[in-house]
Design goal:
194 residues; mainly alpha
Amino acid sequence: MRRVSFNLLTNVILLLAGIILIIFHGMTGVLLWGSRVMGAMFLLPAIAYLVMVAVRHADARTSADYMGVLPAVGGLCFGLVMIFKPDKFDEILQLLMGILLVVLGLFHIIYLLLSRNSLNIKGWYFICPIVVAICGMVSLMVPSLRENVSAVVLMTGICLLLFNFTSLQEYLAERRGRNTTTTPVEQSPISDDV
């Protein structure tokens, strides 16, 4: 069975998140629902871990299992607060979305700069990551924009799609790079006149 690439999984999750944000950007309380979803993302793994440790036979538990209980309980509590008091995280989510866009944009810009010679990166590959980073900076630096939740959510959704488009460009460039660097089988060093 082939292992699913972590990079592919991340891109699929961000693509789905972008599509969902674009579709529901105009919905009242979209960040409240976003907060609840994030709360569930903290809550479910924490519950799963605690149940796994609880059902494991006592002599099969390791010190690492016991050390993981405290973060799991923290994740459980944090998830519950995000689910039942989502309004407390409204502004924090907007800031996190802005930070996420800056980080994602800079990640691709740096990757493209480092890979430009080996992968034959074209200049236009930089357009989407620059737009993503700029949108993130604008959402962090312009307080009046943060007052318009729908605009921030829509902008974040579009930027997540741009992030995925850049990831696709990088993947295709990497494939082209691998295909051009494969060399044919070398001839045997044994000469014919032996």
